[in-house]
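Lecture 7, part 2: worked example. A protein chain together with beta-D-galactopyranose.
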Amino acid sequence: MPYRKRSLMAVVGVLCLAAMLLGACATGAKGTNKLEMYSWWTAGGEADGLNAMYAIYKKAYPNVEVINATVAGGAGTNAKAVLSTRLAGGDPPDSFQLHAGLEVEMYQPDKYLQPLDSLYTSEGLDKAFPKDLISLLKYKDHFWGVPVNIHRANVLWYNKQVFADNNLTPPATWDEFFAMAETLKAKGIVPLVIGTKEGWEAGHTFETILVGVLGAEGYKGLWSGATAWSDPKVTDALNIFKKVMAYANTDHAALTWSDAAQYLVDGKGAMHIMGDWTDGWFTSKSFTGYGWAPVPQTKGIFDALSDSFAAAKGAKNQDNLMNWLKVAGSKAGQEAFNPKKGSICARTDCDASLFNAYLQSAMKDWAADAIVPSVAHGAAAVEKWATSYKDVMNTFATKGDVAAAQGDLVKLCKDNGACK
Ligand code: GAL
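Predicted complex, written out as structure tokens:
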């Protein structure tokens, strides 16, 4: 390289270093010095986790204004629709929450997302995550999101005092659950609390029942076509869910997942089936009187999902966006985020001692259990199928028509090309 060119590069390098020290390097050549990050994390725990990650980012890039764009609604019920409109309208946020798995299909990645393969290589991310997660993250042979966590969907949360007062231990089977539910009902305690206000929670609960009744392979087969939705075991699972709803709070249609969890905090309800963001939410409420167990019949199976952050094509703040994804994928970022969020790191090298007892148990289970993908949270099926599935189950939660629901579920599999 000619001497003059080299010295020019050295000057540029020095200027950049000085700018970095002043926190200005994140501006990027064509950036506006903002970062818009979009999610549905507004509840206690999840919002705290996100803020902890923003704090790391802001420390490294103090001149960047972080715009925390949120659209409330568990499981992204509202956020995903608003996001699709923004992408189609050419007004994308720089980065947004995206479940690992088939959910990415809904955003037409070839058209609206940036593949992140080179970031994976430069940051060593392809080696930082477990292989089950890596395979879930690849779609059409590319990486489209940087995963920040691993969540478990099949958790039965319970109020420890209520259990102790009634000499109860977590039910291993649905028969045990129903026997306990009778005892609790007789005492005027709601055996199982649930909120179905946002339309996805019944689908969440039912998938965990399906996992238990069909087993890991049987459940996975429902999404590949290997297990028929007309299988008598699906009928059994529907009958169980119907019976469960008979022991649930009657105001469920007016409550969100966190409203329902409040019943447990108040000691008015005994159990709640929900993902482990509930652990983050309990922690944010300083509530420690909760215990946990796998949903009945799912011991040894981990119903998994993962939140990742994607990069929009045409993002207004490209350099800031890439720096954000680096923080999100880093050990420091994930160690700050996950203990508050109520999830375990996507990375395999986080310090376990930073996590509470529940999360440490989740780490052990993730390493030992059979892993199955959650449908309610974007992993198992394309969004169109997942949404229709949730709609069917939401109707079922109030109507309880087993034959009609099973017929609809059979049809959805055909409509989505997985079954003949
Ligand atoms: C899930 C998401 C979690 C949590 C939950 C409740 O879909 O992956 O991070 O936000 O919804 O909103």
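The first strand starts at residue 34 and ends at 39. Residues 152-304+371-415 form a domain with the D-Maltodextrin-Binding Protein; domain 2 fold (CATH 3.40.190.10). Keep this in mind for problem set question 3.
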